[in-house]
C-alpha cells in the first residue's frame, strides 16, 4: 500500500438522512474516516517535488454512509478548510478539512444533502443526479450536469436551497452523453465570459477538448468557443482559476493496459477567447504507481505564507475497487 495504516476519525452524530425525493432537503451529518498519505508516499521512491509543485500530504477518505463518494467537483473557501463538493448522485457534501500546516489530517463537520431542483424535488428524482462540475460565483455556486448537459445556479447557502437552470444550450447537447460539462469557470468580472464550460472531450475531434463561453443574460447564451489541445488521450475532469489569473486544468486518462493517470496543466485565463487554441504548461503527470485514483475535482487557496495550494479529490464511482482521495500540493516555483 502507498499510504499509512494510521486512521484519524471525525465522528459526527445527529439527524439520519431520510430522502424519498418528494420532500424538502434535509441536511444530514455523516461520519468520515481519514487515513493519511505521508508526504514521502505519493510516488514510489519518496519524491515530493514535481517541477513547480510540492506534495504536502493527502488522505484516503471513507464513510459508512452509502451516499458518500462519487466526488466530481470541489470548492475550498479562502481559509483552506471549509469546503463544498458535489457528487455523481446529485448530493452536496460540506465540511472542514483539518490540517497541520498544509498537511491534511482529517475531515470534520461533514454534512450531506440532496441537491434540489425545486423545493419538493431533488436532482436525483429529476434525473439530474450526474453532477460533474462546481464553481463559486459572486452570489453562490454554479454546477454542471452531465447527460442533461445543463448548468444550474445555486445561492450561497446551497445545501437547503433549490437551484435554477441557467444554461441549456444546443452546443452542450451536442456533447457525448457521458462527456458533458466536466469543468466550470466563473471568472472575476465576467471576463472573458460569465460562465466558461470545458467538456470532457470532443464528440467530433479526438485531438481537442472543447470550450464554450456563455453569457446567461444573452440570447443566445453561447457567445464563443475555444479549444484546448488534447494530449495522449487525457480528458478534462475539472478546472479552477487562481487569484493571479491562471487556469489550472485537471485531466484524467484511463485504459485497461495503462491504468489510471492524472495530468495537471496551467495556462493564463487571458488565453481563453473566441477561436483560441490553448496548450498550456504541464505541471504534473502521474500514473497508477502513485497515490492517485480517478481524480475529478480541483480547488485552490492561498496558505499563510502566500503559496498557492492545490487540493485534488477523486471520484470513486461508488466502487469497492476505487478510493476517495484528497491530495494537496503547493506551487513553490
How would you describe this structure to a colleague?
This protein is 1% helix and 50% strand. The protein starts with 7 loop residues before the first strand and ends with a strand. A hairpin with a 7-residue loop joins strand 18 (208-214) and strand 19. The chain has a single domain, classed as Neuraminidase, CATH 2.120.10. The model is unreliable at 1-23 (pLDDT under 50). With 333 residues, it is mainly β. The protein is globular and about 55 Å long.
Overall mean confidence score, pLDDT: 92
Instruction: Using the alpha-carbon principal axes, give the shape.
Output: globular
Total domain units: 1
Helix content: under 10%
- The assigned CATH architecture is 6 Propeller
Distance between the termini: 30 Å
Class inferred from helices and paired strands: mainly beta
Report the biggest beta sheet as strand number plus sense, adding barrel if it closes.
Answer: 7 strands, antiparallel
Name the helix and strand elements from N-terminus to C-terminus, one letter apiece: EEEEEEEEEEEEEEEHEEEEEEEEEEEE
Radius of gyration: 19 Å
Q: Note poorly predicted spans.
A: 1-23
β-sheet strand percentage: over 45%
Tell me the name of the CATH class: Mainly Beta
Q: How many strands?
A: 27
Q: So how many helices?
A: 1
Look up the CATH topology: Neuraminidase
Amino acid at each position: 500500500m502507498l499510504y499509512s495504516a494510521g486512521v484519524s476519525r471525525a465522528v459526527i452524530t445527529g439527524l439520519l438522512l431520510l430522502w424519498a425525493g418528494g420532500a424538502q432537503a434535509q441536511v444530514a451529518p455523516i461520519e468520515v474516516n481519514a487515513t493519511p498519505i505521508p508526504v514521502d508516499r505519493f510516488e514510489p521512491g519518496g519524491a515530493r517535488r514535481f517541477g513547480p509543485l510540492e506534495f504536502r500530504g493527502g488522505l484516503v477518505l471513507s464513510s459508512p454512509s452509502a451516499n458518500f463518494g462519487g466526488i466530481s467537483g470541489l470548492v475550498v473557501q479562502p481559509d483552506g478548510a471549509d469546503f463544498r463538493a458535489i457528487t455523481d448522485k446529485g448530493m452536496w457534501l460540506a465540511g472542514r478539512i483539518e490540517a497541520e500546516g498544509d498537511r491534511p489530517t482529517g475531515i470534520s463537520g461533514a454534512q450531506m444533502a440532496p441537491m434540489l431542483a425545486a423545493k419538493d424535488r431533488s436532482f436525483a428524482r429529476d434525473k439530474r443526479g450526474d453532477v460533474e462540475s462546481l464553481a463559486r460565483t459572486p452570489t453562490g455556486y454554479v454546477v454542471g450536469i452531465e447527460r442533461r448537459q445543463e448548468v444550474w445556479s445555486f445561492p450561497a447557502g446551497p445545501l437547503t436551497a433549490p437551484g435554477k437552470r441557467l444554461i441549456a444550450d444546443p452546443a452542450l447537447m451536442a456533447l457525448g452523453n457521458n462527456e458533458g460539462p466536466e469543468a466550470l469557470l466563473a471568472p472575476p468580472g465576467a471576463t472573458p465570459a460569465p460562465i466558461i464550460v470545458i467538456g470532457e472531450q470532443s464528440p467530433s475531434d479526438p485531438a481537442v477538448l472543447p470550450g464554450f463561453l456563455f453569457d446567461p443574460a444573452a440570447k443566445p447564451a453561447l457567445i464563443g468557443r475555444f479549444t484546448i489541445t488534447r494530449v495522449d488521450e487525457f480528458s478534462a475532469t475539472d478546472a479552477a482559476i487562481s487569484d493571479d489569473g491562471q487556469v489550472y486544468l485537471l485531466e484524467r486518462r484511463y485504459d485497461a493496459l495503462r491504468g489510471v493517470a492524472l495530468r495537471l496543466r496551467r495556462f493564463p485565463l487571458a488565453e481563453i477567447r473566441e477561436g483560441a487554441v490553448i496548450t498550456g504548461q504541464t505541471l504534473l503527470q502521474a500514473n497508477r504507481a502513485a497515490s492517485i485514483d480517478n481524480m475529478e475535482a480541483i480547488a485552490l487557496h492561498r496558505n499563510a505564507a502566500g503559496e498557492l495550494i492545490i487540493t485534488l479529490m477523486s471520484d470513486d464511482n461508488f466502487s469497492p475497487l476505487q478510493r476517495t482521495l484528497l491530495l494537496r500540493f503547493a506551487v513553490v516555483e
